[in-house]
Amino acid sequence: MNKSVLNKLMGAVAKVASPTFSFINSFATMVLSSLLNTLLALELQAGDYVGFTFFTGYMSMFAASVFFFLERSTVADKWKTSLAVSGLITMIASVHYFYMRGVWLETHVSPTQYRYIDWTLTVPLMCLEFYLILKPYGAKSNLLTKMIAYSVGMLVTGYIGEAVRPDQTILWGTISTIFWAGIVYEVTIGSAAQLARSSNDLNLISAVKLLRNFVLVGWAIYPIGYMAMPGNLLSSVLRPSDLDLIYNIGDAVNKIGFGVVVYVLAKSATEEAKLRGVLA
């Protein structure tokens, strides 16, 4: 095919494609404009502390994502995936919190469905972090399998008890707590903790302990939420809006905190490797 024929063909394609792309661009602009107008119409009222934490939650976790992704280039190769996962955790959560903010401002009803969608994606990734930071020290795939299985079991049974069978919250809450206890066991005295101790790496040992504390203390807010459901132990103490406030603060602290611990470990290990001249 000679050059003149090729130019004519490209020109014809451009004439056909141009209106199509123009339509797509116009449609996208219209949709985004409509969405923006809807969001701006939902105003945060004075004294709406839950709404405030939805705002601060998605902004703080988005900012944390940007930080983790930017800092990824400053650590050794073996830590890059861990920091990328930290950024994904907070990014996924920030998107969900953006939508949950809209649901709350419009209805003032707890966005349970969105919250469990978020947890289903981010909690297994948080468990993945244990495997990733221990992998350079010999962690096997069975550790990852156990951690993911525990986290999925905890979330599925928790969702059933909270949204599907609220008349059986005690049963499903107990099963969910057993799965949570399995994660705590692995990172306290199980294979994850044993690997950390056998590494003789003080930075790693400290990081695993800190992440364990997030699981043990930070994740304890979720069983508290169960106990505050109607008819349960704390139902007369905590209102549904109190739970959203606790969940929002806990989510931001837990997810950003996980990433910060991984970041500090990666930076410390990278700097020590530079001093030894074995950066990889």
List keywords for this structure.
mainly alpha; 10 helices; 0% strand
Helix-strand layout with pairing:
Blueprint (H helix, E strand, L loop, with lengths): L2 H39 L7 H23 L5 H31 L4 H23 L6 H24 L4 H20 L2 H9 L2 H15 L4 H7 L12 H37 L4
Helix pairs in contact: 2-3, 2-10, 3-4, 3-10, 4-5, 5-6, 6-8, 7-8, 8-10
Describe what you observe in this structure.
The protein has 280 residues and is an all-alpha fold. α5 packs antiparallel against α6 (169-188). 81% of the residues lie in helices and 0% in strands. The chain has helices spanning 3-41, 49-71, 77-107, 112-134, 141-164, 169-188, 191-199, 202-216, 221-227, 240-276. It is built from ten helices and no strands.
Rounded Rg: 23 Å
The total count of helices amounts to 10
The arrangement of helices and strands along the chain is: HHHHHHHHHH
- Structural class computed from helices and strand pairing: mainly alpha
Poorly predicted tracts of residues: 12-18
Q: Kindly report the average pLDDT value.
A: 82
Determine the fraction of residues in helical runs and give it as a percent range: over 70%
Strand content: under 5%
Number of strands: 0
Distance between the termini: 50 Å
Shape: globular
- Give the biggest beta sheet: none
Task: Please summarize what this structure is.
This protein has 280 residues and is mainly alpha-helical. Helix content is 81%, strand content 0%.
